[in-house]
Amino acid sequence: MSLSPLPDSHITGGFWAARLASNRAAIPVGYQRLVEAGNIGNLRIAAGETAGTAEGGSFRDSDVYKWIEAAAWEYLREPDDWLIERLREVTRTITAAQDDDGYLNSAIQVRGEERYAQLWMSHELYCAGHLFQAATATARATGDTSLLGVATRFADHLAKTFGPGLRPELEGHPAVEMGLVDLYRQTGEPRYLELARYFVDARGHGHASKPGFDPSQYGNPAHYADRVPVREANTVEGHAVRAVYFAAGATDVAIETGDPELLAALRTQYDSMRRQKQHVTGAVGSRWDGEAFGDLDELPPDRAYAETCAAIGALQWAWRLLLATGESWYADQLELLLYNAILPGVSLTGTDFFYVNTLHRRTGARGDVQRSPAHGRRPWFNCACCPPNVMRTLASLPAYLATSTDDGLQVHQYAASSLRAGGFAIDVETAYPWEGRITATVREAPDSEAELALRVPEWAVGACLDGEPVPAGAYARVRRVFRIGERVTLDLPMEARLLVSSERVDATRGCVTVARGPLIYAIEQPDQAAGVTLEDLRIDPTMPLRAEHLPDLLDGVTALHTTGVVTTPTDSAYRPYGEQAPPGAPTAITLIPYYAWANRGPHAMRVWIPTS
Fold it and tell me: Which residues of 52-81 are buried (b: 16+ CB within 10 A; e: fewer)?
């Protein structure tokens, strides 16, 4: 089943409206930080607008391009003079910075470095991919094609430089594949799709890693998703962001070229990832070393890398697989990722960010690097890939709500919203994710029979559509001639539930995670009884979990309350087998949604809670 993205969708209130308002406020702040960090300055120097030396690595243009994409989608959502003026200003600078033959990378241009000499680490095509995405977003959102002209000139240059019989090296960090397909969809130029297909099929033969022997990650083909050809791979490996970006681009190629073999391979890889390489929050990446996936079932909560960009890449991949197949579990993945892997990466104000999303911060933890979550969220990073990536993802969020087919509308994500496709338009009312009732009111309907499909998440066992039971893990479908003003109501059960990991996941054996609706919950130090240290808490899985909505806590959350035990700490990390632990005392335990932690300071927190 092939679904079409819905161009006319609007979030009108509720939970996600608040998050989008924070994101909108953050976009001008992000622009200023890009100026202060020198990202925009590099482009201005390359354009001849100012003098100076290039700041930072050659990946930095990509942060500007992601910001442009965020500003473009935000302008589409709510036009604003400041946004359009900044977009035009930055586009003029980028246009002036581009070389006559189409090449563009400001740091390399300003430093006079050789082009494509260190593709395993130079990010030249990675930046190109983000430029292409920014250019298509700007054209679609504003109608201005100036940046699209820059993008097509660069793509034409790449088509003359890479491909069969040309340069054999590949970019170390995938992203250009997605960008080229976006550019193909916008312009219809077949060379861009052909080049994307070339990059997909050429990978897996060691052409992306550093030439010669190098014992570091730069000499490891797996780091670049370059050890096994994509059609032969059965899982994901190496640098998590690279792997999921490449897979998302390969899925684009499979869709546009009608390649069932490639699509089947990518579906197998995604399924392996979600079963044995994905954290309970949806995040991916288990190792700080190489920012990488681990082995199967290697999912440590305290050492989880779980980069925000990797979650966004997984979202992009799941979205493409949903469009290609129409299968509901990909939409379930979107939900899991949005609420529990991407949203934790940004503060409630929208202006501070996690690069790494740990699932366990210990009392008194100290970070030894800038990106350590022990510090709490940060305003910016030396490598600032995550902040503008969050901005563009949230700004484009309305596009992920629903899709259409020739005779109907499919609703995948629940938010108070207005959705339209062809002659079909509905208004969605809901207090999701706090409450499970979703009501769709028909505002426009075709004269003939049509279908409205509402996703029933896999966790929603016991859901009802207009009072009748419907199966979980599928779409509840209503097919008829709809009348203006009629309502369809989906009720999802919102009882809290306990999750356990596979016995093969050593790091979380003997622990549980608490979930309610689409949200993963965590315990955080400020919510526990005075004098209780988080490391000493044990949850009693036999006790009920009581939900309470607290409108004044963390911008309004539904907290969960239960009973557990606070243990007596000992002065040794070990004791002889058979020796009983000191008895514990009953205590109340309060849990909050994981996405909201660290908004009151960098406190102790854990998602996986030991049982009593």
Answer: eebebebbbbbbbbbbbbbbbbbbbbeeee
